[in-house]
Write a structure and sequence with these properties.
The complex is a heterodimer of chains A (about 260) and B (about 270). Chain A is an all-alpha fold and about 260 residues long. Helices cover about 75% and strands about 0% of the residues of chain A. The mean pLDDT of chain B is about 85. Classes of the chains: A mainly alpha (about 260), B mainly alpha (about 270).
Chain lengths: ~260, ~270
Amino acid sequence: MIYLKLCWHILRINLLYELTYKTNFVLQLLQSVIELGTSLMGLSIIFLHTTALNGWRPAQLLVLLSIYILVRGEINLVIQPSMQQLLNDVYKGTLDFTLLKPIKAQFLASTQRINIWSGVDIVLGNVVLIGSLMYLGNQLELRLVIPFVVTMLAGGAIIYSFWLLLASCAFWFIRIESILAIFQTMYQVGRWPVSIYPTWLRFILTFLVPIALVTTVPAKVLIGQISAFDLLLVIIVATVLLITSRLVWLKGLKTYTGASA
Amino acid sequence: MRALASIYRAYFKVILLQQMQYRAEMFIWLISRILEPIIYLMVWTTIAQANGGMVDDFTKSDFAAYYIVGMAVTSLTYTSVMWEYEYRVRNGMLSAMLLRPLHPIHNDLVETGVNKLLILLVVVPVIGLLALAFHPTFHTSSWVLVAFLPALLLAFVLRFILEWMLAMAAFWFTRVNSINLLYSVLLLFLSGTFTPLTLLPGPVQLLANLLPFRWVVSFPVELLLGRVSEAEVLLGLGAQCAWLFFLLTGLTFVWRSGTRRYTAVGA
């Protein structure tokens, strides 16, 4: 399949490019480890004063933390760099080059930049995930694997569509880096179970900026507390967002005038 | 002194106009400043609820007051110089600053000051909104208000000098992001940003007292909430002054050897 082949080539080109800057790997590793250490210290302080945070025991919060790190890795690996490039292209008119290629423009625009070193977060996230699952021990059941994969995929789709939706606003407003930056800072609410927030905030985090669905829901699957309602909600929101972002992208492309051309 | 005052006035005008251009950036910065304490507030409120309304001697509304005042003090003492210095050194921007007959720290001091004035305009209404949302309680007596202002001012200057000195690391290392990150982690735990210092284990509390971290953020917050006695206030102000003296001496030394290493790449 041509898209798979393309993915491979894009990955290879980006890898070759990034290998020039090997120190960046060490720096990224250092940064990820420091951030993980910070989170673990935070959790250990919290559990000095309580045995469960709103029903989440230490191992369960670790599961949530690992998913938080995984999704952050996913964002920084491909979504954020590609969308940043897209904004740049729209601003400078260089999106012309993407549009001229005989491949679906949305695919190219969404995969054009890969920040290989952010893969460190994905590896680290997996390590923490496996560690916390072992710590969690006997509660883990094999039948949870499929719902977990489904919610992770749906979460990925939600995050991607949401970024695409925001980035597509550039077709109308041109300079919108600020909106993306706001989302980056907002993402940190996903480190904690959404149930600790007040109702109004929970509503925002589920429907307006669906960060809760992306981190809390897959974690709830793994600790065996998922409800059919949550599962359905994630799938519906993911589908709606995928379709909406596609429509907005197409509509945006129509208004694109190619400043340089 | 007169000459310096007129230079500061000129800097003030220019920088005020410069900063007015970046309203969007300030807005983003503010969102993360507000969001972070709200998250921690929610975490500790949840724990307090589970423990029957208290964590140590903090009730839910004590936590609310703590994080709201903490947000204000953090915003009013924050400096961005650590994150800019690497760029200045790497691109040789510092060369132009060195050519001026005035230490570059003056420019940064005025810049940070102007930034605080603008931030104050936003922070005050935000405090009001947060107070409405989270119902804080204050046990503040009137003498505390008198001590709060010097404590806050000292905290601001102390943090400014400390971070300006740490920013000098850029003279020795080309990439200082990890150093800055480590500093932020220390600041997060030891300055009372994540949790009130009294909730930390004893040895960590001691560390926060000995290092400058408690004195750059937590102390004015504790003071305003009426959590320190008269004697402790004097001790705290003393500690702030001592650290200020110590860091100023250190800064002179680090600046001298740093500028000697500076090679003005790119300029």
